[in-house]
Amino acid sequence: MNISTRLLLPAGALCLILTGQTPLRADETAPPASTGVPRDPASSALREKMVRGYRDLHSYREQVVQTQWAKTREDATQIRIDFRFQKPNRFYLNVDYPGITTSGRWHLTYACDGKTLVLYNSAKNAFQRVKAPAKLDTLVLPGSLRGPEFLTLLRETDPIAELEKDALVKYAASYESGAQGNVDVLKLDIQQENAARVLRYRLDPKDHLVRGFTLNITPDPGQSSPFLDPEKPSTVESIYSTVELNPRLNASDFTFTPPAGAKENASDTTAKKATAQR
Description:
With 278 residues, this protein is mostly beta strands. The protein is built from four helices and twelve strands, in the order αββββββααββββββα. Strands 7-8-9-10-11-1-2-3-4-5-6-12 form a twelve-stranded mixed sheet, covered by helices on one side. The radius of gyration is 19 Å and the shape is globular. The N and C termini lie close together (6 Å).
């Protein structure tokens, strides 16, 4: 079941992917698969611990501040993420964005209490309500979500293995001290069509879950592919201010009531058909 959010999400924010690259259309040819660059034992072990750490969780809560800029931090934009999850299908996500054309902020909210899934867009003051799926592995989320926890928890898959299907990835592992204390660092040098990316996960050395990451995007020189949105040089930095493993979550943690006056998109035939196909 694919639950559509096209009436609620802004253009370009329709795919959950690790590095933010625009997905291929159906009439396009996929880039070549990874050639399988050998990984050193330390980076392989660190990657496996990270993925297993998320997979072994029964419930999870996080709050994240994600900052992105093109040239300098002074020009940065910032989003705030509040995420809660409990197996098999309880889920809450609020992504708070800066205003697109105004000085205010707006947010996307997803709430699934195991019975009903509610999707709300404050910029449009509109929401959808559909029957909750048994699992959330086909739920479409904003492309601004760059962390590995979303694919691992919702789709029960290895996000880096998914990345390797269409990118050349080189790995390195290290240990460092910084503002967030002592952390293990898993570095990925990623070559995808149109750009090179350097992704550095900062992992807690005890539970091996992400406490922060940086992503640097450098577009390839020359003409870009006509099938992909052109890449722009940018840096993304995420800091996880709250991380709770297996917290005791209540029903109220997964409920959301749209504000008074919000419009319900009850005529969303795409979502209705998707729900009917469960």
